[in-house]
Structure formats: structure tokens, C-alpha cells
Amino acid sequence: xxxxxxxxxxSIGGPYFGKVDDVSTNDRSTxxxxxxxxxxxxxxxxxxxxxxxxxxxxxxxxxxELSGDELADVQTLADDIAGIDGVQDGVSPPxxxxxxxxxQIFVPLDSSGEVGEIVDEIRAFVADLPPGLxxxxxxxxxxxxxxxxxxxxxxxLLLAVALIAVFLILVIVYRSPLLPVLVLTTxxxxxxxxxxxxxxxxxxxxxxxxxxxxxxxxxxxIGAATDYALLxxxxxxxxxxxxxxRWDATSAAWRxxxxxxxxxxxxxxxGLLCLLLSDLATNRALGPIAxxxxxxxxxxxxxxxxxxxxxFGRAAFWPFIPKEPLQTVPDDLTRPVTxxxxxxxxxxxxxxxxxxxxxxxxxxxxxxxxxxLRADGVPTSELVLGASEARDGQEVLAEHFAxxxxxxxxxxxxxxxxxxxxxxxEGADGVESVAVASADTPTGQAAVEVEDxxxxxxxxxxxGTPVPAPTVADGDLLVIGTLTDAADSxxxxxxxxxxxxxLDEELGxxxxxxxxETATDTDTNDTSTRDRTLILPVIxxxxxxxxxxxxxxxxxxxxxxxxxxxxxxxxxxxxxxVFNGVFGFxxxxxxxxxxxxxxLVALGVDxxxxxMSRVRxxxxxxxxxxxILRGLVATGGVIxxxxxxxxxxxxxxxxxxxxxxxxxxxxVAFGVLLDTFVVRSLxxxxxxxxxxxxxxxxxxxxxDDGHPLTGENDRxxxxx
Length: 720
Known about the structure:
single chain; 22 helices; alpha+beta; 10 strands; elongated; six-stranded antiparallel β-sheet; Alpha-Beta Plaits
């Protein structure tokens, strides 16, 4: 029955992989908090500029100065572009540069349409320019199109790479052709059910979905579901090796894995839901969306996989069917042991203090690299890795025009304050020119200057052209400032901050509202930095409470949290050095440390839970120190394989040429491997072993760990 239920869910949810674009968006302004100035301006732009639009900027150059015939060819290009579906009225005529070697065309696109497809049509016309002319499509629409193209492989390529990597790892680890298929089937069906739920939530407008969140959802579900499945498989394998029948083995495995899987998944969900405290809509969306994915991962690992393994029984492990009980560590550590994990357990026991001190020093050294992390935002032009026509076009634009052309700063001011606002913009160092929105002009704006304290709009056109009037909406005007610097540059952000301060001082706080592409980037970075400061400690507090409830202890959870923080710091520090010195990245989004923290801490705690829940179970029977060694041996293989799988799935994000995802891929993949091979295999066992039963303070197990060999007597007996 369970298998049929999951097959039905998978068959319904599977087709939704091809429908994600119907409910997703990549417009950065839609993810800003409602209170942000850029959001308020963005909402009112249609009042001044007509229908909601996103500007594209076509820049055309020649080998020298543009001739009359070449300008005519550029005019023909503008006429052709104006006839494309999705291009709104108001395509400007060619505007020559002062040096005469380039011309630009402003093209307003319908923002509710398929911007990527519209830009592709424009680029097709630009590619057909006569010999001697070369053109690029840039501006906000151009960058949006490049971003959409970067996410194109997220449905097929990303999943294919992740699944192939996981399959190969599982085949190597379990040396079975069938078991990896069963585990991956569990993960894929969990993803189908999660995607089906998320799609309808996004369709109803309850959550906001974009390519970034979508990619993380896919990877997170595949990785987490596989991890939880491997924990169940380990318990099932133990039961089968002990000679239990498949139904009895199913029951024993489910009892042994239910609590750690539920605690591990619950911890991740608790950490993810802390993102609801974010002011950025994209972060708030990731919290519930990823939590839904984790919930289905747990459900699939605890229902679908047990049903499959119950049906296949021992045959799931063919041709290497387990026949011998799990290797363990003898109480007398002077006796010879066989196997990787028993040897490591004995090594940890004999050198516990040296092991955890050396590990700590090495991790602290790696964490020192955090000082080199530049997570204060990156230009929009750098979001896409590899070739970007919009980025190339922006560089050409900056050679012949004001670098901020096509992405102006918008200032909404009361009609009575127009003169004062214009004077502020004209006096700013980073503003090239000032205009005001006017429906009376072909371009939708008119030049404005201040004479004798009064604003004067300049007539556009031949002599006798009527003087345009500004567009007034609810008593406000839209002032448009062309920036000297590229709209996505740090210098442009400084200009926006300066304008906001100067306008507040001149007109009064809140009188003028500054928006536009640069303001959107500025507000996004500021909000993301604020979120990072708020959410990180909240996540730690929530996870600490979950660990205390699971382990019935205070000291052990505190120590585990400290190791997780140390591991995260090392992962981030090493990543910063690699980003700067190896990959040459231009920096990082402020959300990169936050996302890395959420995934590494929440998922890293999973491995703590796998280890320490088994340690506690063994300690109740064999004593704390013996329980630590037995727990390490019992979980060493599953944690290592789970870590490899999770690292491989997150590393698969690197196939998507988006800077943010590439950085998350490296941070999480490296951090998970660090957790797997250092923190969970050496640091935590060695530290716990050195402390002894005091790690269970103040629980009953601290007073009596269920074994006559306690305290120092326990340690001496084990080591002599």
C-alpha cells in the first residue's frame, strides 16, 4: 500500500518539473521587503512611465565614427525592434555618443512577459547588423535574460549530475546494483511530492519561487533524503546481518532509525524556518519551501524505503549480502582489531586529548581565513559566470556614454519640491544628467534644470516643439538621474546612499523616495546583512534546544554546537581564500554566509545526531566511553557515505553558471566533507571520550551510565 501511495505521488508530481517556469520569477525587486525604498518606488513606476516595463539597452558601435548610412541602419534596427511582441511603445531613436563612434537605443519591455525570449529576439536582430557594425543588448532586461539562461539547466542538467554522482558513490560504498536504485528512488519520489506541493503554493501566491530557491530545493531534497535513507539502510543491514527475517529486520530498523531521522530532519526544518525572520522575500520563501522538501525526505525515508526493503529483503544487498554482525571494539583495547572504524576508534581512545586538540588548532587556523571574505555584495553584471552579452555590452556602453545609461536612479518627490530635488541631483558627483518623467515626450522623459529657483523642462524636438509637462501622480513627480558609474558598481551604490542622505537633509526625512536598479541592489545588500546578523544566533539557539531534548543533556549539546560553529568557520575561511586566490571571484552576496550557515549547521548537526544518538544508546548498555567507541564504529560508515553523498549533491550546484550557487556549492560541499572526516570522525569522539560520562550532565546517565565501569576506572580498563 505504501509503495502504491508513493508511486501515485511520484507520477502526479513528476510532470511538474517542466512547469516550474510558470510560477517562478527572477526579478530581484520582487524579493525586497515591502518597507524598502526601492520597493515603494518600483510599485509606483507605472504611474509615471505607463505599463510596467523593464528597460533593455541596445548599444551599437562602428570601426570609427558612425556615418549617415550607418545611423540609418541603426534606425532600421530600432524600427525592427519596435515590432517585436513584448516590446512596448516608446522605443527611442538612436542616440549618438559624443565621440560619434556609438549609438544607443532604449527599449522598454513588458515585464510581465517572457523577458528572456524577448531579449533573444532583439539579439537576433542585432546579430544581423550590416558589416562594420556590432551591437549588444544590455541594461536590466539584458542581465535578466542572461540570468534566465544561466538557470536553464536547473531542471535537467543539475538533477542528472546530482543523481549520477550519488548513484556512483552508493555503488562504490555498497557494491550492489539494486540498493542504490532503491535509495535514489526514495529521494526522487520525495522530490516529486515536494515539488508538487511547492508548485501549488507558488501558484496560489503563498510563496515566491525563483531559480535560486528551486536549485537549492532540488539539491537539498536529494541530499537529505539520501542521508536519511542511508541511516535506515545501515540499521536494516545490521538486523539482516544478525540473522533476522526481513519483516523483523524492517521493524528493528524502523525503531532504531525513527528517532534520529525525526530529530535530524526536525533540526534542519527548525533551522530553515528561522529564515522566516528575514526581511527578504527570497529568504522567507526558502524557509518553508526547503522545510517542505525536508519533511517529504523524512517521510519517504521512514515509509517508502522501509516498504521497498521489506519487499526485497536480503536481495537488496546482492551480491554482497551481509552475513556477519557489525564489527565492534573490545573493552580491552590492547587486543587486536580489524576493520577501518574499529582501528580508528582504538586510535581515538588511545590519543583522545591529542586528537581533539590538534583538530581544534587546525580548524582554528582554517577559520582565520574569514577575515578575507568579501561578502558585501557583487555587481549584477558578475552574477552570471562565463560569457555574458549584457556584461560585455555594459563595458562598451561605459566607453562611449555615461556608464549608468539605461539603469537610472528614480526619485519620487512632491510636485512642490521638484526644484530642490533637481538641485540635489545636479550637485551630486555621481549623477551625469537629470530628467523628469513626462508623457508628452517620445522617450517618456524630458530634461529639467532649475532657473531662479524654478524648475524648467526643456523642449525636445525641432523649433516650435511644445514644452512638455511633467507627469503628476497623486501630487508626486518622478525625477530621473543618469548615473556616471555603472548602475551595479559600488560607486553607484555610494551615490544612491549620498542622494538619500542629501534629499532627507534638504527636503526632510522620507519626503523623497529613491529607487531604481542601483537602489534595489543597495537595499538588498543592506537587508541581507541585517538578516545575517539576526538569524544566525537564532538558528544556533533553536538547534541547541533540539539537541538538548534529544540527548537529555546540556553539556553534550553545547559542545556539539561549538564544534559545528568551528567547522562552519573553517569552511567559510578556507572558501574565502579559494574564492579570492583560486577562482578570482569578485566577492560574495551577503546572503552567502547565511545560506552556508543554515545548511552546514543544520545538516552538520544531522551527523552529530546520527553519532550521538547511537552513542547514547550504546552508553546505556556498555558505559559512556565504550559507548562512544561503539557508536563511532556503528555510524562511521553511514556518516562517511552520507557525507560523500551530500557533498556530491551540493557540488552539483556548480554546474549552474550562477555565482551565488557556485559559492554555496563549494562552501557546503567542503564543509560537509570537513564535518564527515574530521569533526564527526575525530574531534567529537575524541573530545567526548576525554570528558567521559560528564558529557551527559545533568541527566541521569551522568550519575549512572548503566555500566559498572564508570569515570576513570572505565578509561583505565579500556586502555590497559
